[in-house]
Amino acid sequence: MAKAFVVGHPIQHSRSPLIHGHWLKTYGLDGSYERIDVAPVDFGEFLRGFHARGFAGGNVTLPHKEAAFLGVDRRTERAQRVGAVNTLWVEDGVLWGDNTDVPGFIGNLDVSLGTGWERTVDTALVLGAGGAARAVVAGLQDRPLKRIFVANRTLSKAEDLARDLRPGSSVSIETSAWEALGRVIPHAQLIVNTTSLGMAGQPTLAIDFSRAPRNAAVADIVYVPLETPLLTAAAAQNLRTVDGLGMLLHQAVPGFRRWFGVTPEVTPHLRALILADIEAAR
Ligand code: NAP
C-alpha cells in the first residue's frame, strides 16, 4: 500500500487530504494520504526519515517549503527556479523536490481560458511578490509572452523576484511600483492576483479595470471566497475571470501520479466537493 502525506505546521486547515482521498477512492487504489503536523525544529529529521517510515512521499506546506528546498538531494528545474519545494518523493534512494504550484497555475489557466490563450497575451501583470508569485511568474515564463510586470506593495521584494527569475528567461521581467499600477493595466492582457488581499478576513484588493484591454483575463489565486471582489469587479467590466480553486486542484496532480502511479483527473465533481468543504468551513 502506497502512503503519502501533507506536512505543515499547523496542518488542520489543509484540503489536500480531501483531494487525494477522493482520487484514491475514485481509482480504487490501496493507498493512504494523511496530515502530519511537524514543528520547524523537527522538520529536518522528518525529511530524512519519512521514507524509512514507509511513505512514498508527500506535500509540503507552510512554513516548510523553503526548508524542504534546502533539505532535498535534488530539485526539478522549476523548483530550483522558484526557490521552494511543495512535493517530495524518493527515487533510487535520492530525495527529490518539485514545485507543483507552477504547473498547477498554468494548467488551470489552460483549462479555464483554453489552450493557446497566450496567443492574445503579450504582457502579463502579476500582483504580489511572495512565494505564490514566484510560482506564477515561473509558469508564465515558460510561455511565449513578451513581458511580465510584477507589482508589489514592497517594491524591493518585486525587484528580488525579478532578479532571481530573470536569468535564462526569454520573457522580459519588469517591476512596477504598487502606486503605478494604473499605468500598467492598459497594457496587460492577463492580470493575476497573488497577494492575500481579497481573502476572507483580509482587506479587498480594489483595482480599476475600466482601462484594461477589452480582451483581458483576470485570475485570482485566492479561493476563499471563490469569487473574490477582484473577480466581481473584472466580470463587471466583461473581462474573463479565473478563480483560484483550479490551481489548488491542478497542483495536486503531479504528486498523486508520483506516489500512486495514476494520473488523476480534475473533475467538476472534485471541484464541487472541495467547494462544499470551503463553504461548510465559513
Ligand atoms: P506570502 O509569501 O505571504 O505573500 C503575500 C503577498 O501579499 C505579498 O506580496 C504581500 O506584499 C502581499 N500583501 C499582503 N497584505 C497586503 C496588503 N495589505 N496590501 C498589499 N499587498 C499585500 O503569501 P503566498 O504564499 O505568496 O500566498 C499568497 C496568497 O495566495 C494567499 O492568499 C494564499 O492562500 C494564496 N495561494 C493560493 C494557491 C492556490 O493553489 N490557489 C497556492 C498558493 C497560495 P508585501 O511583500 O508588501 O508584504
What does this 3D model show about the protein?
The chain is α/β, with parallel strands linked by helices and about 280 residues long. The chain is built from 12 helices and 12 strands. The protein has helices at about 15-25, 45-50, 65-70, 75-80, 100-115, 130-140, 155-165, 180-185, 230-235, 245-250, 255-260, 270-280, and strands spanning about 1-10, 30-35, 55-60, 75, 85-90, 95-100, 125, 145-150, 170-175, 190-195, 215-220, 240. It has a 6-stranded mixed β-sheet with strand order 2-1-3-5-6-4. Strands 9-8-7-10-11-12 form a 6-stranded parallel β-sheet, with helices on both faces. The protein is globular, with a radius of gyration of 19 Å. The mean pLDDT is about 95. It binds NADP nicotinamide-adenine-dinucleotide phosphate (NAP). NADP nicotinamide-adenine-dinucleotide phosphate binds near residues 195, 196 and 199.
Number of strands: 12
Q: Please state the oligomeric state of the protein chains shown.
A: single chain
Compressed to H and E, one letter per element, the order equals EHEHEHEHEEHEHEHEHEEHEHHH
Residue share in helices? 25-40%
Largest sheet: 6 strands, mixed
